[in-house]
Amino acid sequence: MNDILDLPAERDLPPKAAHAMRARILGSVRPRPARTPRLRAAVAGVVLLAVASGVAAAVWQRPDRSPVQVLAMGPSELSPTLRDAAERCLQWNSPQRQTRQNPSEQPVPVSPADLAVAIERDDRTLVLFMNHAGYATCDAEAAGTDQETGGHASEPWRHGDWLPGPVQRLLLTSTEHDGGDVNVSGRVSGRVDRLVLDHGDGRSTTARLSGGAFGLMTSDARLKADNDPELVSYDARGAEIDRRLLFQAEDQLEHCYASPDGKRIYGKPTSGCLPAEKWGR
């Protein structure tokens, strides 16, 4: 079993809580069983779907917060809660903590100026830092309560500024294993002028774009994987340039994508790869 899912010693949780978190994260990469009564009863029971190179958990205590929804694109737009979340993510990504968790992993060096996307919804927060080296992201559930848990991922760019087409999804969280409401963040190429989440039922949510990053959150969307929700990209003329399934992993994309020298760098090994596109920072 990959030891990246083991909690570091300084953040040990009670065995029952640790087991529940591990099962929830593992469930994001394999079919999940029927939802439990706890998941049906609590809309805040969000599933972490991102492919993460490291996972951590912690507990804080703070008075209950009202159900506020905020989407910020950069450090200048942060609410007090998102500012706390960003600072906490930087602490989780510090070289000292990363070394104690897994000496073989090198955290991507990020700073407050690298904050690209921050999302706050009810009792959840999500922040994403990106720079030339890679990205770091943190997701917390029941934020600001004595039962707060969270996940952390930090990974260098495998192929630099080259993306699998116009858009690369980096993090996706959902309130149900097969849909519900979602928070999504990632990066886009210079061709993308507008990015929309097509719910698959006639409704849609438009993402915010800034500096080559995107972020979106839905509210009462009731998304269902069976409806095949898709991320749809448009250019400056309004023409559709890309459409891909929201819940599809990067290595299962419909097309493969090749670098300018013709080498396949994304997707399944098939012929006729589409060109990879450059990150539009």
Question: What's the helix and strand layout?
Answer:
Layout: H1 15-26, H2 37-41, E1 47-48, E2 69-72, H3 80-92, H4 95-101, E3 115-121, E4 124-130, E5 134-141, E6 149-156, E7 162-163, E8 167-176, E9 179-188, E10 194-198, E11 204-206, E12 208-210, E13 213-217, E14 223-224, E15 230-234, E16 240-245, E17 257-258, E18 264-266, E19 274-275, E20 277-278
Parallel strand pairs: 17-19
Antiparallel strand pairs: 1-8, 2-3, 3-4, 4-5, 5-6, 7-20, 8-9, 9-13, 9-14, 10-11, 10-15, 12-13, 15-16, 17-18
Summarize this, please?
The chain has 281 residues and is mostly beta strands.
Features:
single chain; 281 residues; 20 strands
Assembly type of the shown chains?
A: single chain
Q: How many structural domains?
A: 1
User: Helix count?
Assistant: 4
Mean pLDDT across all residues, rounded?
77
Textual characterization of the structure:
It is a single chain. With 281 residues, this protein is mainly β. The protein has one domain. Helices cover 13% and strands 34% of the residues. The protein is built from 4 helices and 20 strands. The chain has helices at 15-26, 37-41, 80-92, 95-101; strands at 47-48, 69-72, 115-121, 124-130, 134-141, 149-156, 162-163, 167-176, 179-188, 194-198, 204-206, 208-210, 213-217, 223-224, 230-234, 240-245, 257-258, 264-266, 274-275, 277-278. The strands form 5 sheets. Strands 1, 8, 9, 12, 13 and 14 form a 6-stranded antiparallel sheet that branches. It has a 5-stranded antiparallel sheet with strand order 2-3-4-5-6, covered by helices on one side. The protein starts with 14 loop residues before the first helix and ends with a strand. Residues 1-5, 7-11 and 23-66 have low confidence and may be disordered.
